[in-house]
Amino acid sequence: MMGQGRMRSLNNQKRDFKQATKALFMKYTVIPVFFLFFVFFSFTYIFIYFKTINDTEETADNILRQVNDIYDSYRNEILELADSTKVKDFLKNNQNSNLVFEEFYNFNNKQKVKSVFTLVNENGKVLLSTNRNQIQNDYHFTRFINYIKKNPDKIAMDVMESQVSRGEMTTLSLGKSIVENKNVIGGIVLQLYENDILNILFSENIDIAIVTDKFDNIIATTNDLAKGIMNKFRLEYVGRSKVKINEETFYFSQRDSYDGQFKIYTLKSAKNNSMSLIYFGFSLLTGTILYFLVRILAEKMASKNAQSINKLVTAVQQLQRGNLDAYVDFKDDGDFTENEFVYLYKQYNDMVNSLDQLMKRNAELARIRRISEIKLLKSQFNPHFLFNVLETLRYTMLVDTKKAEQIIMTLSKLLRYSYDATGEEIPLENDLEYTIDYLQLHKLRFQDRLNYEIHIPEKAKEAYVPKLILQPIVENSLKYGYKKKMKMKIFIKGRIDGNILILSVYDDGSGIEPEKLQELQELLSKEENATEQIGLYNANRRLKILYGDDFGITISSTVNEGTEVELKMPYKTSHYE
């Protein structure tokens, strides 16, 4: 079967010398190049991917650090202004406004992000402002002032756009009530310029950067594509670290400020990775064209070296089909005289001759080995029961000489039968007679403590079975049955199931302990036996050697209930089946 499998594989693949030469050329030229090409572009794509992710993360961290610094500066400043004596004196006396402006400008001029300063009284009326176009009745501004008054202990923050005098916009407002003696006497509002925040965002090497508050209201963004309804930033997630804005895919990173007031989003277009894929595809197409050109060249090169080997390959294929007469005829090949192929042809023909002789010798050796192993296994049965019988005979001779004589006669009959070399297989009926003599021999020893019954159909008795096949099974019952019981009964049964003969030996004795039973079952599955348990093992081994692995012995046992051994073998009524 294995030879036929190899033959079919060879025929299907048609691996002749020309193909092998061509494959060798492809293996050591094109395949390594394509492999390096694949590794290079895979590495490039992965490198671009991770660099893109790393760029978005580093940029987000850098922007967040600056935003945190700005927010901390303004938060500290608004607390100082709200507690400033100059500010409070102005609210009370409406004098020395220059001192208030001086204090604000000392702070504002040092900031990266500048702001508009507004001071209101307890009624929300604007008293001072650096924004000349400050609208007193602006709805959002008024709402923000009212919120400050209602929450005097908090620093309020709101995202709202306001036009300033020089045509610029403020986008983020911070406010705080001015409290004296637990009474609100006014309020301060600092409104940060949008352009100054954008300058920070545009200084980063990123496609889109967005700063929002904790509710995703956009404070500043480098691209208006990010702006949604009501100035909200909304993400459409399309994969891990990927979002889509207006049908364009971006890699993104998000960072939150330490107090949760701000969110930073950085986005980088995925087009760079897409371009690398396009470049990869173009290079792959070029490589494929190159591959076919090299393949054609390899075909032409291999064809020049293929003709001389075809005849030898054909002979090998015939040999794989089992044709031991598949010699190479090279007498008419004058062109090959005195070259390497003539040497190969001669060596091949010599090998075929040697192979034919070797197979014949191996078959004969296997037959001799099989016969020798069976004889060895069968011979191992005798010492076990012979020892038991001699022990019984030794005690019986002292108390009952007639019974001892009967034991000797029966033993003599058994020994003649076991050493009779008439054949390996005998009719079951003959082997049953031997088994009955064997049981009778032990019956003389155990008296009423041992009983047996045999129920085998006449048709089953015609079957040919291995000689002495039942004796070791009965011996096993006697070995384990009396360990915990004084009496025991053995049942020998048989049946025919299709083309299978099944014999069973059951006893109602002590049974076998689970650990010992498992040991016996494992022993039966092995091809070699290093233990002293040879009876059951040898019977099982003989069945497998004679008939194959589908046949043999199975054993089952229950403690204090008994043991059953089942023998399975082909049903045959002659030696020749």
UniProtKB/TrEMBL annotation:
<feature type="transmembrane region" description="Helical">
    <location>
        <begin position="24"/>
        <end position="50"/>
    </location>
</feature>
<protein>
    <recommendedName>
        <fullName>Histidine kinase</fullName>
    </recommendedName>
</protein>
<dbReference type="GO" id="GO:0005886">
    <property type="term" value="C:plasma membrane"/>
</dbReference>
<keyword id="KW-0067">ATP-binding</keyword>
<dbReference type="Pfam" id="PF06580">
    <property type="entry name" value="His_kinase"/>
</dbReference>
<dbReference type="GO" id="GO:0005524">
    <property type="term" value="F:ATP binding"/>
</dbReference>
<keyword id="KW-0418">Kinase</keyword>
<keyword id="KW-0812">Transmembrane</keyword>
<dbReference type="InterPro" id="IPR010559">
    <property type="entry name" value="Sig_transdc_His_kin_internal"/>
</dbReference>
<keyword id="KW-1133">Transmembrane helix</keyword>
<dbReference type="InterPro" id="IPR029151">
    <property type="entry name" value="Sensor-like_sf"/>
</dbReference>
<dbReference type="GO" id="GO:0000155">
    <property type="term" value="F:phosphorelay sensor kinase activity"/>
</dbReference>
<feature type="domain" description="Signal transduction histidine kinase internal region">
    <location>
        <begin position="373"/>
        <end position="450"/>
    </location>
</feature>
<dbReference type="InterPro" id="IPR050640">
    <property type="entry name" value="Bact_2-comp_sensor_kinase"/>
</dbReference>
<keyword id="KW-0547">Nucleotide-binding</keyword>
<feature type="domain" description="Histidine kinase/HSP90-like ATPase">
    <location>
        <begin position="468"/>
        <end position="572"/>
    </location>
</feature>
<keyword id="KW-0472">Membrane</keyword>
<keyword id="KW-0902">Two-component regulatory system</keyword>
<feature type="transmembrane region" description="Helical">
    <location>
        <begin position="277"/>
        <end position="298"/>
    </location>
</feature>
<dbReference type="InterPro" id="IPR003594">
    <property type="entry name" value="HATPase_dom"/>
</dbReference>
<keyword id="KW-1003">Cell membrane</keyword>
<keyword id="KW-0808">Transferase</keyword>
<dbReference type="InterPro" id="IPR036890">
    <property type="entry name" value="HATPase_C_sf"/>
</dbReference>
<dbReference type="Pfam" id="PF02518">
    <property type="entry name" value="HATPase_c"/>
</dbReference>
<keyword id="KW-0597">Phosphoprotein</keyword>
